[in-house]
Design goal:
Dihydrodipicolinate Reductase, domain 2; Rossmann fold; 6-stranded parallel sheet; 14 strands; alpha/beta
């Protein structure tokens, strides 16, 4: 098997760290590894497979001889440095929103639209974490009967806003226990004991950018501009793993039993649905797992062409790092 020169941009961040963990767990064929980050993180040391690596500052000259560059350093850094990586001959797999809606950049979940990977011109985009988790549940259903409408509300963990956001929730919890002042920096309001119906910035149509990502990315990956998606994204006081309440309208009738069969037969997702025994997906149990879980599958009261369901997934793994590594794995297999 051929081995590859790999660079991880944003290697000291939460997703970058998870990428390294997954590259190790899945034994990705690495010939050489380069860890890149911002100037302030340069010089830090990270252990990978028992070997010590020094983090380097990302520059336009960082990608000589790199085959695959996994980017997770934010949109501005991707826009600045991804073109240099491509020019150097690397394939960039980018976790930011910088290139997702570029018509010349494939937006990919390997279980959903793997063939799009090979249409790249040097850059492949990793979708928004919330969209990935939803589409893992929707794709097997969509292939059975075309989905006309999606109504989704997300319940997004603090980690979706980064390591500092997780730390803020932890600090707010400690402050509450100690009866100290609860400080707010990362979110618009206190997240502890609260839910905030506001993820990312609001746009002119009163939806947030996060909600519009779910709408536009779903259409792009399913190659269906006619699917109607309405999203409400909410931040909840959970450390890790997103959950979503989804209601679907199909072209044909779909029973809950058929939906369970289809979802259980789809890679990367499994049915966890036994309401008689209070069994359903929850962030507590999907954190750290690769598979997304789907439960509460029921016929919606709108009729036989409608279903409602609940899906949960670890947005740092499948919603970000794992999906990026799976794209790389699919790429090298061909």
């Amino acid at each position: 098997m051929k081995n590859y020169n790999v660079a991880v941009v944003g290697s000291t961040g939460a997703v970058g760290q998870e990428m390294l963990k997954i590259l190790d767990e899945r034994e990705f064929p690495i010939k050489s590894l380069k860890l890149l980050a911002s100037k302030r993180s340069a010089g830090k040391e990270i252990i990978f497979k028992g070997q010590k690596y020094k983090v380097e500052e990302t520059t336009k000259d960082s990608f000589c001889d790199v085959d695959i560059a996994l980017f997770s350093a934010g949109g501005s850094r991707s826009k600045e440095f991804a073109p240099y990586a491509v020019k150097s001959g690397a394939v960039v797999i980018d976790n930011s929103s910088a290139f997702r809606m570029d018509k010349d950049v494939p937006l990919v979940v390997p279980e959903v639209n793997p063939d799009d990977i090979f249409k790249h011109n040097g850059i492949i985009a990793n979708p928004n974490c919330t969209t990935i988790i939803m589409l893992m549940a929707l794709k097997p259903l969509y292939d059975y009967s075309k989905i006309k409408r999606v109504i989704v509300s997300s319940y997004q963990a603090s980690s979706g806003a980064g390591a500092q956001a997780m730390q803020e929730l932890e600090e707010q919890t400690e402050s509450w226990v100690k009866r100290q002042e609860i400080k707010v920096n990362k979110f618009p309001y206190q997240l502890l004991f609260n839910v905030i119906p506001h993820v990312d910035v609001f746009t002119d149509n009163a939806y947030t950018k996060e909600e519009m990502k779910m709408i536009n990315e779903t259409r792009k990956m399913l190659h269906d501009d006619n699917i109607v998606v309405s999203a409400t994204c909410v931040r909840v006081p959970v450390f890790r793993a997103h959950s979503e309440s989804v209601t679907l309208e199909f072209e044909d009738s779909v029973t809950p039993e058929k939906a369970r069969e289809l979802i259980d037969g789809f890679p990367g997702v499994k049915v966890v649905d036994d309401t008689a025994n209070n069994v359903y997906p929850m962030p507590l149990f999907v954190s750290g797992k690769d598979d997304c879980e789907v439960g509460r599958i029921r016929q919606d009261l709108n009729g036989s062409k409608w279903l409602s369901l609940w899906v949960a997934g670890d947005q740092i793994r499948k919603g970000a790092a794992l999906n990026a590594v799976q794209i790389a794995e699919t790429l090298i297999k061909k």
